Backbone:
């Protein structure tokens, strides 16, 4: 009976150690979305981002992946800008950021 109690306590302990890490895990694209917003703010200083949508990831090669975001900007007018964030997945390093204004 003593071993069942020990196993139960161990199982509950593991559950409480693992659950918080998975419950608050951010999606893979979150860090790149933050960069997309920061770069859009720099590229369009007179505009404020009012909407943000992750549109997907494209595998280019082992050393290049592209994360795509659609950002709505409000200023004198409303602009929709597609932001492409190119990264190296092996090093988690930013390679470049590209913008495409949607007409």
Residues:
């Amino acid at each position: 009976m003593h071993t069942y109690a020990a196993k139960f306590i161990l199982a509950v302990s593991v559950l409480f150690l693992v659950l918080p890490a998975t419950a608050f895990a951010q999606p893979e694209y979150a860090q790149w979305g933050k960069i997309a917003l920061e770069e859009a703010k720099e590229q369009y200083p007179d505009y404020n981002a009012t909407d943000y949508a992750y549109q997907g990831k494209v595998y280019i090669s082992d050393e290049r992946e592209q994360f795509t975001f659609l950002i709505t900007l409000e200023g004198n007018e409303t602009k929709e800008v597609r932001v492409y964030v190119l990264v190296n997945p092996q090093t988690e390093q930013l390679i470049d950021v590209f913008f495409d204004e949607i007409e």
